[in-house]
Amino acid sequence: MKLNERSLAFYATCDSPADNSGFLYKRGERHTAYHRRWFVLKGNMLFYFEERDSREPVGVIVLEGCNVELCDAAESFAFAIRFGGAKSRTYVLAADSQEAMESWVKSLSRASFDYMRLVVRELEKQLQEMSRGLAAGSGGSREPPAPWKPKPSGLEERVSDGEAAAVAESPSAFCRLHEQYSREVARLRQDWQQRRRGPRP
Fold first, then answer.
1. Where are the domains of the chain?
2. CA 122 to CA 102: how far, in whole Å?
3. N or C: which end of the chain has fewer CB within 10 A?
4. Which fold has domain 5-115?
């Protein structure tokens, strides 16, 4: 899916909920000095701004295929976002505290659609095992619950060509698409929690 700068800027500042936000220190690519920037994590995109109330982001890091790890750096509470490949850039960031650093590392590590896909597959596996256990415990006296089959979680598998074209042309369409999938992930998680608790007596 191709997104233009206008779409990204709108998405970065629209009212859709952020997965994490706060000030971090970002090391420059050419110069090793750190600059304080306001970061906003939405889905698998990490936006950064000059100031908290800036109207447009300075840049964005798409987190697919990255590894987030602690690193040695001049600044305390530093961590790195690394991508595979010899020429890929490594982003070095630093937080104000241990707690903030741990929060960012955790949320960034879970930001990719690949991670969400793995989570959904693991939940499906657990539900299937529970279904088999319920069937065995009932002695065949009742039908076991049907295994839960989640919809694919990756946007690339679910966005039609028409939707992709609309998103590329309209910033608000991309924002609505993100909100739609955020609600769906929340609903699937709630369904899973209810199934895990089992039927009410």
1. 5-115
2. 24
3. C
4. PH-domain like (2.30.29)
pTM above 0.70, yes or no: no
